[in-house]
Amino acid sequence: MHESETLFSQHGPDGSRSKSIPKWGALLGGGTLAVVGLTRRSKSGIAMAAAGGLLAYAGMKLNSNTEPGVAETSLLLNTSPDEAYRFWREFETIPQYMSHIESVNKIADRTYRFIARVPVIGQVRWDAELYTDRQSEGIDWRSLPGSDVDAEGSVRFRKAADDRGTIVTSTVRFRPAAGGLAGAARYLSKSASFLLRQNLRRAKALVETGEIPTTEGQSHGPRSVVTGVMRSINPVKPARGEHGFQEMVEARRSVS
Amino acid sequence: MKAVCWMGKEKVSVEDVPDPKILNPRDAIVRITSTAICGSDLHLYGGFVPTMEQGDIVGHEFMGEVVEIGPGVDRNKLKVGDRVVVPFTIACGNCFFCKRQLWSLCDNSNPNYWIAEQMMGYSPSGLFGYTHMMGGYAGGQAQYARVPYADVGPLKIPDGMPDDKVLFLSDIFPTGYFGAVNADIQPGDTVAIWGCGPVGQFAIRSAFMLGAERVIAIDRFDYRLQMAEQGGAETINYEEVDDVIQTIKEMTGNIGPDSCIDAVGMEAHDHGFMYMMDRTKQAIMAESDRPIALRQAIQACRKGGTVSVPGVYAGFDDKIPMGAFMNKALTMKTGQTHMMRFMQPLLERIQGGEIDPSFVISHRVPIADAPEMYKIFRDKEDNCTKVVLDPWAAAAA
Ligand SMILES: NC(=O)c1ccc[n+]([C@@H]2O[C@H](COP(=O)([O-])OP(=O)(O)OC[C@H]3O[C@@H](n4cnc5c(N)ncnc54)[C@H](O)[C@@H]3O)[C@@H](O)[C@H]2O)c1
Ligand SMILES: [Zn+2]
Ligand SMILES: [Zn+2]
Fold first, then answer.
1. CA B210, CA B190: separation in Å to the nearest integer?
2. Which of A68, A212, A231, B311 suits B362 as a labelling partner, its CA being 20 to 30 A distant?
3. Do A227 and B54 touch (CB under 8 A)?
4. How much is the pLDDT for A193?
5. Residue B80 per-residue DSSP state
6. If 0-12 CB within 10 Å is exposed, 13-18 middle and 19+ buried, where does residue B219 land?
7. Hey, which of A41-50, A168-177, B84-93 has the most confident mean pLDDT?
8. Closest approach of chain A CAs to the CA of B91, in angstroms?
9. What percent of chain B is modeled with pLDDT above 90?
10. How does DSSP assign B146-213, residue by residue?
11. Mean pLDDT for chain A?
């Protein structure tokens, strides 16, 4: 990793401290995308990817002069803040609801190793440290030096009015590639927020119903060529792989 | 298995496709014994609703026997061998909306939530055999179907009740009833209903069940108007009168119906200038719906009345008389039917002999005839009111 070692310590908690956080959008999940012109060491930075401009991936190693991207989204969950917190805190279950995350393993007290698989780029690894962890309230994490990714994020759990459950707010800050297009950060933030919401939605479904809705693998008649192509670049095609069915069966439904 | 597939605008065909599999823990597989074609299928058939894909299995009114259940299905609620009617709305049973009995608004059942979200702000529930915006779930005009959240939707049917009597609990009977409930009918009310298709027919009968004293039914097909009369309605053939609204005013002493139900939806037909405008706009995709019945319902409704819209609209509509709507202080209620709220009570009404929903059936055919029947039903030929398909019957020679 480059100069990002001091990234998370040199600034205040308001997000301004993100200094050189490279592409994160892709890792937030979401897409089985055709990524255009993106290589792992891409200096040219941003590759706007695929699917009718819906998504964008940034390059991996970036310099630090661009505006940080921020992805944020929130959803109402029909469960208590405590239950929601406990669900999120089990980091090992993340691959069930975040597409592209292959595994999450605890490597030290409060530190987890994330392995993601991103189209074209391949495997991406980072170690995330929980630097705040408050029961029923929230979690903050940041990537550690030596990771393929510089990013930080938080999840907050707030009791919704009228006993409607919990409003979960998830935020991720990242820095898109340098030399990129003007407005790229905003563009990427939008895409990343979209992906984040997709993942949050899957998490919500898992918490509320014990499974993630899908039509992948259902029967259909002959598809047209156009349909076939559209399906293969569907930006939100749920990633299931080995994770999925069996784990969902074991996942408890936390509300009833 | 055999399944009716949407193959493009005005094109459906019966294809051999793989049998459905359990994809999620709470899924069940149902072996379908009866399935029907709905007015909503006609909107898909006509290519009026965006996000269909070639090869999609259509159909959302079906019933049959549970042949397989996933490991997450609550065994106290459903087991292999149960005979069930499957509601066309797919609901998880556990979200904010399901908990409030707003089943067609389930927050979890649409895997393509984001598409509907782009168009409507939020997504309604997934639906069987409908567009990808509504989840793209394979439908039930087939020999088998996969039913998600199988411990929530399917209604168990006691032995001895024939399919014909209970099949329409899957959609149109509850939909007609919901249309009447949404019309906020008070005892003694007069209710006007546009469209005497199956939904309109059940709305007529439901309006009386809910205490209406007069029902005025509007359509242009005499055989359907006759069926409406058999249900107790007074009728207007809109092709035989100069002005529907004026006729309704005359019939109600110039006060108007207390509530109006649009059981026509986006493919309304009319003569005259507005109809040509709407058709043209629809053809060039400047407007997605033809809201003729809706406009009339708003116009005809008495001051302070309620407009209920079970008819399906898909997109954007022009020339909705908001001025009339606002200044007459009307209320409008609508939605895909919250099926699970009505299925059990309506089953009881059928068991009690209050109604036999099979009266709407005009055609019973093998599934192989589906492509032809779509056309006949669309064009209201051969006195067609409702088509029931037998997924297992051999095609007529
Ligand atoms: N809300 C729901 O959950 C739900 C469920 C099922 C069906 N539907 C909708 O209900 C509507 C009716 O369904 P159906 O199965 O009865 O269809 P259908 O096609 O058999 O009936 C529609 C009827 O409306 C009549 N009509 C057309 N234009 C008219 C006009 N200007 N004035 C009066 N009548 C007119 C037609 O002649 C026809 O008889 C459709 O839009 C369908 O999509 C809604
Ligand atoms: Zn229907
Ligand atoms: Zn729900």
1. 11
2. B311
3. yes
4. 83
5. T
6. buried
7. B84-93
8. 10
9. 90
10. EESSTTTSPEE--TT--HHHHGGGGTHHHHHHHHHHHTT--TT-EEEEE--SHHHHHHHHHHHHTT-S
11. 68
CB A255 within 8 A of CB B94: yes
Which CATH number applies to A3-8+57-214? 3.30.530.20
Output the six-digit token pair for B383: 């006195």
Alpha-carbon distance of A229 to A219, in angstroms, equals 18
Angle at B187 between CA B182 and CA B189, to 5 degrees: 70
Is the beta carbon of B219 within 6 A of some atom in ligand 1? yes
Pocket test for ligand 1, best of B199, B204, B290 (most atoms within 8 A of CB): B199
The C-alpha angle with vertex A138 and arms to A144 and A198, in degrees rounded to 5, equals: 80
Model confidence, pTM:
0.87
Confidence of residue B288 (pLDDT cuts 50, 70, 90): confident
Residue A189 pLDDT exceeds 90: no
- Going from the C-alpha of A244 to that of each of A168, A212, A216, the distances in angstroms are 23, 8, 12
CA distance A141 to A148: 15
DSSP H or E run through B76:
none
Structure tokens at B95: 């979200």
- With H, G, I as helix, E, B as strand and everything else as coil, classify residue A190: helix
Cα–Cα distance, B292 to B89 (Å, whole number): 26
A76-85, B112-121, B214-223: the lowest-pLDDT one: B112-121
- Starting at the edge strand that comes first in sequence, how are the strands of the sheet with B190-194 ordered? B234-237, B214-219, B190-194, B259-262, B306-309, B331-334
Q: Which chain A residues touch B if contact means CB-CB below 8 Å?
A: 76, 78, 164-165, 194, 197-198, 201, 204-205, 208-224, 227, 230, 236, 238, 245, 248-249, 253, 255-256
What is the distance between the alpha carbons of residues B335 and B179, in angstroms, rounded to a whole number? 9
CA distance A221 to B345: 37
What are the domain boundaries of chain B? 2-171+337-390, 176-334
A204 to chain B: which residues are within 8 Å by CB?
A: 107-108
| CATH annotation of B2-171+337-390 | 3.90.180.10
**Residues in CB range of B217: below 8 A, 6 or more apart:** B192, B193, B196, B200, B204, B225, B228, B229, B233, B234, B235, B236
The domain segmentation of chain A, as residue ranges, is: 3-8+57-214
| Residue B260, amino acid | C
Whether the pLDDT of residue A113 is over 50: the answer is: yes
| Token pair of B140 as six digits | 């039930």
| CATH class of segment(s) B176-334 | alpha beta
Q: What is the pLDDT averaged over residues A29-38?
A: 28
For ligand 1, say whether the CB of B270 is within 6 Å of any of its atoms. Answer: yes
- CB–CB contact A205 B108 (8 Å): yes
**Backbone region of residue B8 per phi and psi (left: phi > 0; alpha: psi in -120 to 50; beta: other values):** left
What DSSP letter does each residue of B306-368 carry, written as one string? Answer: EEEE-S---S--S---HHHHHHTT-EEEE-S--HHHHHHHHHHHHHTTS--GGGG--EEEEGG
Q: How far is the CA of B176 from the centre of ligand 1 (A)?
A: 10
| Residue with more model confidence, B275 or A214 | A214
Query: What does each C-alpha distance from B9 to B256, B281, B371, B374, B375 come to in angstroms?
Result: 39, 17, 12, 12, 12
Nearest to A156 by CA among A143, A130, A137: A137
Average confidence (pLDDT) over B314-319: 87
